[in-house]
Amino acid sequence: MSKGHILQCSTTLTFSKNQFYDYQKKYKCHLQSVILLLDCFQLLTNRLLKNSLSGHYEQSEAIPTLRLLRDSAIAMTTFLSFTITNTDFLTFKSMTKRYSPISDFLKNKFGCKVFKVSLNAGLTCPNRDGTKGIGGCIYCKPETLMPLNYHYENNPPLSPFNKGGMMGGFLDDMKIREQLYDGIAYIRKRHKAEKFISYFQINTNTYAPVSALEKIYQEGIDHPDVVGIAVSTRPDCVDDNILDLLQNLSKEKFLWLELGLQSSHNKMLKLINRCHTVENFTDAVKRATERKIPVCSHVILGLPGETREDMLATARFLSNLGIWGIKLHHIHIHKGTKLEEMYKKGKFRPLGLDEYADLVVKFLQEIPEDIIIHRLCGDTSRRFLVAPDWSVNKFLILDKIHRLMEERDTYQGKQRIKERRNNLCQP
Ligand code: SF4
User: Fold this and answer.
1) How many other C-beta atoms lie within 10 A of the C-beta of residue 89?
2) Angle at alpha carbon of residue 238, lines to 236 and 240, rounded to 5°
3) What does the alpha-carbon distance between residue 320 and residue 301 come to, in Å, rounded to a whole number?
4) CB of 186 within 8 A of CB of 150?
5) DSSP 152
6) How many other CB atoms sit within 10 Å of the CB of residue 375?
7) Would the CA dihedral through 138, 141, 144, 149 be positive or negative?
């Protein structure tokens, strides 16, 4: 167990005498069985914690079991219609991470350090080439997402599907494999990662005929240490044929689909020129989850004119959709974007770091604790950035968020757990 990973889980169950008495009257013959069950629950939880704290096994192994125990206890109390007055045992959390980060998920799933390798398939976006829109989303600057080992200045557009010519794409097989091998070598050395996820991140990675996509994805996973693949795209660019392809691929490698939503409000999607609707997103999620493809949604906090309530409504919207992951970004103003024009004309003010951290914490409180958090902030380079200044210091942002969660003693899903407790405690 890594140092600092301490599970907190109170297992004290307190029942009022009256509750027991009422309960005994109602379910006389079963009372002893229920007490026995609760004792077992307490014993199991304590044993799990003890083993975890003594390093007998990793925290990541204990968490799913604790979740199972907790959910069984909730189910039991709900089924038997009685109330637990002290519900602290319903929560457990890591002292180092008060949310469910993708790094823990991947480590738990693959048993080692797993990193993503960003790949550029050389595709463009229908919101740039005129098919859906022109100019793209008002904040979009694809260069900021280029793989580390890719020098876009030296690579002219080569992809036959890159109709818009925006971004130096390269599609031939060697180039994708080269990126993969170079990326793996770099990340293995720098981060000591053992396994890798091929991450098609930049632009719209389903924007090509299915046969071409199949080839691209296969090239992208052609390495013995690649254990998974992530495909990032727009919600209006995943027809059934593409989802079928992803479903087939998911039988070969662990796969997830990333869909850009950004906001759950159509008026906002219009303002930022997304050229798709919230309904497109809901439909894509439904069809993907029907195929058991895990979906991770992208959300941007701090879009022009969005209120705190609007953003928290997006959290609640996603919480009820059955998605698997969320990737949070703050809004950057990049050079050469429409957003830069708005900023220079005084029509848009980006969030301050304190405001952003506060919003992230509140957003996390709203979403279920088992949604995997892929990111808590965006990442950019100073050479593209106009504002805010704090954007370039990812560690500062993460530190601010983590500290705030500590200070407030809060965690992912807290608000939902509170609601669940209230429901449980209803007579
Ligand atoms: S959909 Fe994505 S790639 Fe396309 S313009 Fe918008 S942000 Fe850029």
Assistant:
1) 21
2) 125
3) 19
4) no
5) G
6) 18
7) positive
Show me where the domains of the chain are located.
7-96, 102-420
Q: What is the CA(407)–ligand 1 centre distance, in A?
A: 36
User: For ligand 1, is residue 262 a contact (CB within 6 Å)?
Assistant: no
pTM of the model: 0.77
Which of 123, 125, 339 gets mutated to test ligand 1 (max ligand atoms within 8 A of its CB)?
A: 125
Q: Look at residues 152, 202, 139 and name the one whose alpha carbon lies nearest to residue 385.
A: 139
Q: What is the pLDDT of residues 183-218, one digit of tens each?
A: 999 999 999 999 999 999 999 999 999 999 999 999
Which amino acid makes up residue 236? D
CA-203 nearest atom, ligand 1 = 3
Q: Which CATH superfamily is domain 102-420 in?
A: Aldolase class I (3.20.20.70)
Nearest to 329 by CA among 356, 306, 364: 356
Residues 43/410/361/269 CA torsion (nearest 10 deg): 50
Helix (H, G, I), strand (E, B) or coil at 238: coil
